[in-house]
Amino acid sequence: MRYANYVTGALVLFSAMQLAQADTLSVVKNRGYVECGVTTGFAGFSAPDDKGNWKGLDVDMCRAVAAAVLGDASKFKAVPLNSQQRFTALQSGEIDLLARNTTVTQQRDTALGAISAGVNYYDGQGFLVPKSLKVKSAKELDGATVCMQTGTSNENTMADWARANNIHYKPVVIEQFNEVVNAFASGRCDVFTTDASGLASIRISKMQNPDNYVVLPEIISKEPLGPFVRQGDDPWLNIVKWSLYAMIGAEELGITSKNVDEELKSANPNVQRLLGVTPGAGKNMGVDEKWAYNIIKQVGNYGESFERNVGMGSPLKIARGLNAQWTKGGLMYALPVR
Ligand SMILES: N[C@@H](CCC(=O)N[C@@H](CS)C(=O)NCC(=O)O)C(=O)O
57-68 b/e with 16+ CB inside 10 Å = b? Predict the structure, then answer.
C-alpha cells in the first residue's frame, strides 16, 4: 500500500512537470555544474568526508559526467536524497542525474518518467544481524523483526521472499536512513535488510563494533544498481551511459589515471578513439573530444574507482565478484567506442 502511494504520487508529479528541462546538456553547460542526486550519506558509495567533500563509487558517476561535459570532475553539486525522495527529485528537474545505489527494475525504467543509464554495481539483497541473535541462515528468521527503509525495492523483495519461504516477520519501515540504522543498532529490530553493499557499508561505518555483526550468506534478489536520468532526453542519457562505459572500457584497455597521458601515444585504435586522439566520439555527443580522457585522468577507470571506494583499498573491502570485468569472469562489459 505504502509503495503504491509512492508510485502514484510520483506519477502525478511527473505528468505535472512534463519534462520541463528536455535539454539537460545545455542546462548543465549554462549552469556550469551537474546537480547530482546521491544518498544522505552511505560510506563507500556516496558520503561526505570530514572536509565535506562527497566521495564514493556513485559520486564518481557524478564526477565522471562533470568531467565529460564540463572538463572538470569537481563541477557537480551533490544533492542528498533519501530512498523515498529520489525519483521525485529527478522528475521535478531538481537533479540532472540520480547516482545513488538505485536498483534498475522494469517499473522504474518505464513508469516513473525515469530511465536507466546502465549498471555501475551488480548487487543483491541480503540480511545483517547481530551475532548475539545466533542465526546462521536467513531461513532461521521466522518471527524476526526486520528493519528496512521506505521507498526501497527491499520492502517488496522481503515480502516476496518471506511468503515463498513461509517466514513470518514484523517489518519496521522507516523513511530516514539514520533512523533505520539507529533502530537496528538499538535492537528495535533483529535484522537489517537491504543491498549487500549497503549492509557492508552499514556494518563498517555505522555499527559501533562491526565485529558484533554478520551478513548472512543468503542473497535473495538481483539488485543491479546504476544511474538514472529523465525520460525524453536521449542526448543526456547517452552522455551518462557513455561516461560509465568510458570508465569500464578504460579498465578493460588498461588505461588508468596514472598512465592516460602515456596512452595518448598508443597505437591501439580503440584507445585512440576513446581518448579522442582519433576524433568523433565527443562530437557524436556534443561534448569535447577529451570527454573520456578527462574522466579517466580525473576520476580513474572503473577498477580504480571500485578499489578506492569499496574494494580492498577501502574500509568496506568488497571483492570484485560480479563487478569484475567480463574478461575476468564478471559482468562489467563496456560497449565499444567506435
Ligand atoms: N537498491 C535499493 C535500495 C537502495 C536504498 O535506498 N538503500 C538505502 C539503504 S538502507 C539507502 O541507500 N539509504 C540511504 C539514504 O536514504 O540516504 C533500491 O533501489 O530501492
Answer: bbbbbbbbbbbb
Q: Is 19 helix (H, G, I), strand (E, B) or coil?
A: coil
- Residues with C-beta less than 6 Å from any ligand 1 atom: 39-40, 42, 82-83, 101-103, 149, 152-154, 177, 180, 194-195, 198, 223, 225
Q: How far apart are CA 215 and CA 221, in angstroms?
A: 15
**Each residue's pLDDT tens digit, 235-250:** 999 999 999 999 999 9
- Atom in ligand 1 nearest the alpha carbon of residue 180: 10
State the DSSP H helix or E strand holding residue 89, giving kind and residue range, or none if neither: helix 86-91
The CA 111 to ligand 1 mean position distance, Å, reads 19
Q: Cell triple for residue 194? A: 537491504
**Please, which pLDDT band fits residue 10 given cuts at 50, 70 and 90?**
low
Burial 160-183 (b: 16+ CB within 10 A, else e): ebbeeeebebebbbbeebeebbeb
Name every residue whose Cβ is closer than 8 Å to that of residue 43 and which is 6 or more positions away in sequence. 56, 201, 204, 205, 206, 315, 316
The structure's pTM equals: 0.94
Pocket test for ligand 1, best of 79, 116, 153, 154 (most atoms within 8 A of CB): 154
Third-level CATH fold of 124-222 = D-Maltodextrin-Binding Protein; domain 2 (3.40.190)
259-308 pLDDT, tens digit each: 999 999 999 999 999 999 999 999 999 999 999 999 999 999 999 999 99
Q: Domains of the chain: which residue ranges?
A: 124-222
